[in-house]
Amino acid sequence: MTVFTAFKRISRHAALPALLSVFAGAAHAAPEVGISPWGPTDEIGRLNLITPQSRAAIMARVTGAQAYDLAVDYFIGMPSWQAAGDPPYQMWMTHTPHGNVIADPMQVGEPMNQHVSYSGSAVSMYAHMGTHIDALNHFGLNGKIWNGFRADEHLGDRGWNVTGAEKLPPIIARGVLIDVAAAKGLEMLPDSYRVTREDLHEALKLQKVALEKGDVVLIRTGRMRDYEQAQKYMTNPPGLSLDAAKFLIEDGEAMVVGADNLSFETFPSEVEGNYLPLHTYLLAMKGAPILELVNLEGLARDRIYQFAFIGASLKLRGADAAPIRPMALPIK
Predict the structure, then answer these.
(1) Which of 102, 153, 260, 311 can pair with 224 through a Cys bridge, CB separation 3.0 to 4.6 Å?
(2) Closest residue by Cα to residue 204 from 265, 242, 254, 239
(3) What is the mean pLDDT of residues 172-195?
């Protein structure tokens, strides 16, 4: 409804108060970046929920029975955002045993090069590929990111000088798998399926699990089954709805959220009222880092829904994301 339409629908006597109410409601609904309850210098948002007590509590429950690797392989041709113009994963040999014999790069002579087989390699990649964590500077609003930090003050030619990936601490917390695909009796959710609040409720009920403050919550869509087929994996992925994300953060009080796809949300991004894409809501407004491309197939197979989540990302200074190799340790 436009302001003009609203004005026409109200009586002449009530016009001014009602019109002021319309403007007040519009102003209230306008989204803004979140200001941290942990103070003006906070750069890690909800990761402040990790405490010595919370770490000790979850580690005391570890059974030691098994460790689940939640990371994917990196390889040439792996899924990535090439359609958006981002660089693919590349790996090349900088030294090979035979090449060293010919080039003798260290000038140690042919006998040494023949005797010692030396290989070296290099990689190049986009920060948002493979199993990774989004830092809080990845998405913002109106030139600002989490805690009101401004791009024109903090973003330089060598990345952000606040909230960079190097600021993310090691994450040790209770992890929860919400297997939405299995709850629906599916191996994989349909293309572009938008996971709802009700879907999460139903899956948690079936799993007999309740969310707790400070959880790392991971959503399984089943899309990881297509990981080796990059085009199929990237096309029309299922993902989380905005309302479902609100349930995890505002009701469940999750600390970190993640999924087994490369977008977390699905496309096109939702606009509910004045809210913007899911990444903006989570990172810029709520200070909640996002994990993407998390391999949840082992946990789902063994029906492990609660675990100790342990993960530390690479300390890429000023970056808006970094690779992470998380582990899940079952708990009693």
Answers:
(1) 260
(2) 254
(3) 98
Q: Which of 280, 289, 283 is nearest to 168 (CA)?
A: 289
CA distance 57 to 215: 13
Average pLDDT, the chain: 90
Q: What is the pLDDT of residue 205?
A: 98
Q: Tell me which amino acid residue 141 is.
A: L
Q: Is the peptide bond before 31 cis (omega within 30 degrees of 0)?
A: no
Neighbours of 193 (CB within 10 A): 21
323 CB contacts (<8 Å, ≥6 apart)? 74, 127, 130, 131, 132, 313, 314
Query: Which class for 250: exposed (0-12), middle (13-18), buried (19 or more C-beta within 10 A)?
Result: exposed
| Torsion-angle region of 253 (φ positive above 0: left; ψ -120 to 50: alpha; else: beta) | left
Per-residue tokens: 286: 């709520």
- Which tokens sit at 168? 């993310």
Q: Is residue 193 within 8 Å of 234, Cβ to Cβ?
A: no
Mean predicted confidence (pLDDT) in 12-28: 40
Q: For residue 200, which of 232, 178, 177, 171 has the smallest C-alpha distance? A: 178
Q: Does 128 score more than 70 pLDDT?
A: yes
Which domains are assigned to the chain?
1-30 (no CATH), 32-82+127-330 (3.50.30.50), 90-124 (no CATH)
Q: What is the pLDDT of residues 240-279, one digit of tens each?
A: 999 999 999 999 999 999 999 999 999 887 775 555 789 9
DSSP 253-266: --SEEEESSSSSB-
Q: What is the pLDDT of residue 270?
A: 77
Whole-angstrom distance, CA of residue 278 vs CA of residue 222: 20
CB of 115 within 8 A of CB of 128? Answer: no
- Which one is predicted more confidently, 3 or 226? 226
Q: How far apart are CA 283 and CA 62, in angstroms?
A: 30
